[in-house]
Amino acid sequence: MGQGGGGPLGIEVIVAAQAPFWLSLGFWYNVLLVLVGLGLVIFVHELGHFVVAKLCGVKCEKFYLGFDIFGLRLVRFQWGETEYGVGILPLGGYVKMLGQEDNPARLREELERARARRADASKGESPQPGGPNGLPSPEELAAEEALFDPRSYLAKSVPSRMAIISAGVVMNVVFAFLCAMAAYSLGVFQIACGVGEVAPGEAAWRANLRVGDRIERIGDKPVKRFSEMQAAISVGDIDQGVPMVIRRPGVAEPVRLTVVPDRLRAIPTIGISNPRCPVLNAAAPVVPGTPAAQAEPAFQGGDRIVGVDGRPVRIYADYHAQEALHS
Asked: Which residues form the domain of 297?
């Protein structure tokens, strides 16, 4: 603050500290999108294994997204012979089939014991004890079931097992193809290569480009999107100018002109903006303390301005023109 008698003046500066990025809602929203996308890919992959296993007559004991380590899971329910659930560790998923063991050496050992027990039983000999009190261990019982149950994964033919194992990858490829077809059929929003506003005094204004013009070609290259026009200008001849072919409302023939880009910014520009419609910001649609903040009903994020005082508004230039008339 100031001091009397010609002393030095102090300036009070208020600095707003920015919160860590991991505290923002936007960060966690993006994390959620990643988890949902990853979960969808995993679900489709495991669904391929599950469906083909069922078609081949294999008993599926579990279908899980994520891993239920130490028995920890978010959701669990039983439907038929299969337990469905979401594990606590979201780093994959699995389908547990009868007779499938991730440790081949252990599985081979248990199968040999099961065969030996079955051979001893067929000869009338007492089977070798595998567990306490001379009873078979749970691992031996599971191995016997996996070996002799007709719905076991091990009981299926080699082509069936190959189909089950490869079904996950095949399902992912098919799903990616369907997503690509959907994306191409729906399309992606692109801004047309039109003139929404012309900055006074800059290159487009000097070349007589007007609001509403549509740029069709730059040099010998056709352009349809505003981004293509920007890229063509940035690599064009800055000294001699960039030849353009435009369509002007009310003029039958295409108009040819040459625009010499300005070097006012990091890349060459001609001083036009795209023909976007006025849409209010989703997070902050109005500035507090302005007349817009007092409007009834209140403006909402994402609202599109389609008219001002009874006059239609298509692009920002229309809005700015009406704003100038009422200022």
From this structure: 277-327
218 shares its domain with 268? yes
Q: What is the pLDDT of residues 57-96, one digit of tens each?
A: 999 999 999 998 888 999 999 999 999 999 998 888 999 9
Residue 288 lies in a domain: yes
Average pLDDT (49-60) is 95
Q: State how many domains the chain has.
A: 2
Q: Evaluate whether residue 296 is within a structural domain.
A: yes
Alpha-carbon dihedral sign for residues 88, 90, 91, 97: positive
Is pLDDT at 306 greater than 80 in this prediction? no
Q: Given a cut of 80, is residue 186 above it in pLDDT?
A: yes
Give 303 or 47, the one with higher predicted confidence.
Answer: 47
Residue 88 counted as domain residue: no
Please classify residue 49 by burial: count the beta carbons closer than 10 Å to its beta carbon, then call 0-12 exposed, 13-18 middle and 19+ buried. Answer: buried
Inside any domain, residue 255: yes
Q: How far is CA 296 from the centre of its chain?
A: 37
pLDDT value at 3 more than 60:
no
Same domain flag for 289 and 242: no
Residue 44 has what pLDDT? Answer: 96
